Amino acid sequence: MNGHEAAMRPPHPPEPERAAALRRRFADEARSERPDLSALCLLVGAAADGALDEAGIDAAQIDLDRLAGQVPFRPGGPRSWALALAELLGDRCGFRGTPADYQRLESSLLHEVLRRRRGLPILLSVVWMEVARRAGAPVYGVALPGHFVVGFGPPEQQVLADPFEGGRVLTGGDAELLVAGATGAPLDPSMLTPADPLDVVLRILNNIRAWAAARPERSDVALWAVDLSLLFPSHPARLRYDRAQLLVERGDFLTGATELDAYAEVVEAVDESAAGRIRHQARAARSMLN
Fold first, then answer.
1. In what helix (H) or strand (E) does residue 7 lie, and over which residues does it extend?
2. What distance in Å separates the CA atoms of residue 155 and residue 189, rounded to the nearest whole number?
3. Of 156, 93, 82, which Cα lies nearest the Cα of 119?
4. Counting CB atoms within 10 angstroms of each CB, which of 64, 115, 152, 285 has the fewest?
5. Looking at residue 227, what is its pLDDT?
6. 114 closest CA partner among 19, 41, 10, 6
7. Average pLDDT over residues 10-28
8. What angle, rounded to 10 degrees, do the helices at 121-135 and 54-68 form?
9. Span 163-176, pLDDT tens digits
């Protein structure tokens, strides 16, 4: 394997002991009074990439601080903030996305997005948010269906920017087109409310799981992404079913069957027939042990 091929190889998770320590830190941060978005995203990165050590995590935070130091001092209203961030991050630093970025796991890892200056809309939005927040901007994420953007200012003065397009400031029509393209439905005002940091990280983990689902040989990635998702104070119950299925797919039939039975107990209260199907799956998994 030559150096170029090695550089292109997707990152692989850390050793089990470090992975367990990262999960504990992730849980503590996710359940804290004010979860830190950049810290959570960097812990996701460390769970994905065994090469990201403590020095690398610190370097990424320092990079965000450095970029914030280059933002003009309080440029003005929401539109001025949006234009200042676009000029710095989009024009001068070259942060933006391309269709090819959807095919790379690195596009969902904050430390890699800072290094490559490429990523998915939601990770580029994290860069915008964290740099702008450090510079004192009234900034937040806006989770439009199918395309994450950033917002500046209060609702009555809201300005939206699309980091995937280098921070292009969006008109109302632009946002409507993004939503219509993703859902076929009109833009609802509720879609423009600030996204909670934990919802942002859960959406990132869902993207990682979608990446892994298209690559069955990377079920290891899907498993750690589910494990982190389960550490949130509140999470979809179905995640436990997804985890059990992954365990069975990876050959851990006994643990997977046990988790399927436990999920069936939860489901039985609302859907007995579904619980029966899940128990049948558990029996099938145990039969693979014989």
1. helix 3-8
2. 10
3. 93
4. 115
5. 97
6. 41
7. 93
8. 60
9. 999 999 998 788 88
In tens, the pLDDT along 174-195 reads 888 888 887 888 888 888 999 9
Q: Nearest-CA neighbor of 126 among 138, 146, 142, 115?
A: 142
Q: DSSP 3-state assignment of 168?
A: strand
Within 10 angstroms of residue 2's Cβ, the number of other Cβ atoms is 6
The reply to whether the predicted model has a pTM over 0.90 is yes
Q: What tokens were used for 39?
A: 């810290």
SS3 151: strand
Pairing between strand 139-144 and 159-162? Answer: unpaired
Decide if 86 contacts 169 (C-beta within 8 A): yes
| CA separation for the pair 11, 48 (Å, rounded) | 6
Residue 223 token pair: 């498993």
Could you give the percent of the chain with pLDDT greater than 70? 97
Q: Please give the span between the terminal C-alpha atoms of the chain, in angstroms, as a whole number.
A: 40
